[in-house]
Amino acid sequence: MRPIDGIDLLLLDLDGVVYKGAHAIPHAVEAINGSGVPAAYLTNNAARTDTQVADHLASFGLAVRASDVVTSPQAAMNLLASHVPDAGRVLVVGGEGITAEIAKRGWQVVRKASEQPHAVVQGFAPHVSWTDLAEASFALQRGIPWVATNMDWTMPVAEGIAPGNGTLVSAVHTAVGRMPEVAGKPERPIFQLAKGRFGASSPMMIGDRLDTDIEGANKVKMKTLHVLTGIDQARQLIAAPKMRRPDYIVQDLRELGDDYEVPRETLEKSTGNVFFEVGRAAVKRSGNRVELLRAGERHVDTVRAACIAVWTSDFNIHGMHIGKEILEL
Description:
EC number: 3.1.3.41
Number of domains: 3
Pfam family, one: Hydrolase_6
Distance between the termini: 26 Å
InterPro entries: HAD-like_sf, HAD-SF_hydro_IIA, HAD_sf
Keywords: Hydrolase
Oligomer: single chain
Protein name: 4-nitrophenylphosphatase
Helix content: 25-40%
C-alpha cells in the first residue's frame, strides 16, 4: 500500500518539507506535482500573507493559489470572531500576515491599549518590540480575549535558531498571569479550518516536526507522514510519545507514491526476543533492551524498524536501554 492511497488532500508544512532556506528540497516539488492528489499548505508563520506564501511556493514550480494556503492568522480570526463586533478593534502584536486578515473581516487594527481594543492577537514579526508586548499586557489586564497565532518556541533563520512566537507570548504571560487561546499547529483550529475549506474526508498531514505537524494532525485524527528532510530525525522519532508518532516515515517525498513496507515482527518463543525487520534492516528487542542487528540499505528502513521496536514495547522509553548504534542513527 502506498501512503497516498485513499487520500483526497495533502496538507503540507513548508520549511523542512517543501523548501529549506532559499531552495526547494530535492524531489519535493516533483513529488507534489506528480502525486495526483490536491495539495494545500499549512503554516504557523504569521509574518506573511497567504498571497506572499503562494507566490513563494509558485517560484519553485508548484501550482499554488492564495486559497491553497492556510495560515495561523486565518485560524486566529475564527477564534476572534465570537469576541469582536462588526468594525471592532483588535490590538495586533505582529505584522502583515495578521493585519491583512483583520482587514478582510472589517475590523480595525490598533496598537495601543488606550484605544480600547476588544481583543488582542499576537503573532511573530521581526519588528515586534518590548513596546508592543507591553501594550498587549496593558490591554489584557482588562480581561479581554487573547489569541496567539502559534506557540513555536523557536524558528529557523539563515543565521541559525532564533526565538519564536511562543517565547514572546511567554513574556506577555509573565506580565498578565494567563495564557492565550492558540490557533496554529499543534492546536485544532488550523486543522479544522483546512478540513472545512477543502471539504476533504481523508486528508494527510505531511510534516517534519513531531510537536506541531504530527501531534496536531493526530489530535484531529488525520493520517500523518513524517519526512526526514527537516527538523526531527531518528532520535526524536524513536523517543516520540504516542501522540507524536506518525503513520508513515519517509526519507523524502518521492516515497509518497511507493509501496510502504510494513515492518515484519517475529517472536522467538524460546527466548522471548522480538525481531523487527524492514528491508534488510533488523532490530532486536529483548525485554527493555533494543539493539541494532543489521542496518538497512536505506537509512529510513533502519529508522522504521527501530521506531516499531520501541513503540510496541511495554516499557516507557525512559526505562529502556537503547543501543548506541540506534541512538546515532
